Amino acid sequence: MFFDSWTDLLRVAVVALVAYPALIALLRLSGKRTLAKMNAFDLVVTVALGSTLATILLNRDVSLSEGVLALAMLILLQFVSAMASVRSRRVRKLLKSEPALLLRDGRFLTDAMERHRVPRDEVRQAIRSQGIGAVEDVAAVVLETDGTFSVIPRSSVGTGTSFAPVRGGTPAGAENDGAPGSSGL
Predict the structure, then answer these.
(1) Which pTM value belongs to this model?
(2) At 107, is the secondary structure helix, strand, or coil?
(3) How far is residue 21's CA from residue 3's CA, in Å, rounded to a whole number?
(4) Are 183 and 169 in contact (CB under 8 A)?
(5) CB–CB of 145/98 below 8 Å?
């Protein structure tokens, strides 16, 4: 249980010395987007890469070449998916969620909060974390595609052009730029 053999330890060390640099090289070749924290799909790929690396290191039934191929395939599929989502709206909608407006002009949007399973306390926490003491001082809280909250104080709304892709429209005071998804509320 605590120790099987020196051979097993040597195998893990040698495989790690080869598999880890192979993973780093593959990630560098594929670009920064491969490990981006943009949405749930990206998180799944990142976890899968870690799990695959662990399997390569610890499972004697998986050869180093099989493991490196598995890493390369995950990275290739992530790369192809990201490229396809840039080029195709249909693929993008399949792979990625849209940001959602949870609070507009100091008022909670309960339908959106229920749809995304976000309690008021989490929205309030996001507001407090930005150093804002009153919900009424907030123009918008957006649930981003990666699960984080963006809090926009009333004083920072400007023209509101960043709200164009946000489901639920724009906060009051923001000009409608005519982009899809902006309602000019």
Answers:
(1) 0.66
(2) strand
(3) 26
(4) yes
(5) yes
Six-digit token string for 113 = 């909060």
> Comparing C-alpha atoms, which of 83, 92, 79, 78 is closest to residue 165?
92
The 3-state DSSP class for residue 172 equals coil
3-class DSSP assignment, residue 90: helix
Residue whose structure tokens are 């489901």: 167
**Which tokens is 10 given?**
């040597």
Residue pLDDT tens, the chain, 185 long: 788 889 888 999 999 999 999 999 988 888 777 777 667 777 888 899 999 999 999 999 999 999 999 999 999 998 898 889 889 989 888 887 788 999 999 999 999 999 999 999 999 999 999 999 999 999 999 998 888 899 999 888 877 777 877 877 667 666 544 444 444 33
Q: How far apart are CA 149 and CA 129, in angstroms?
A: 10
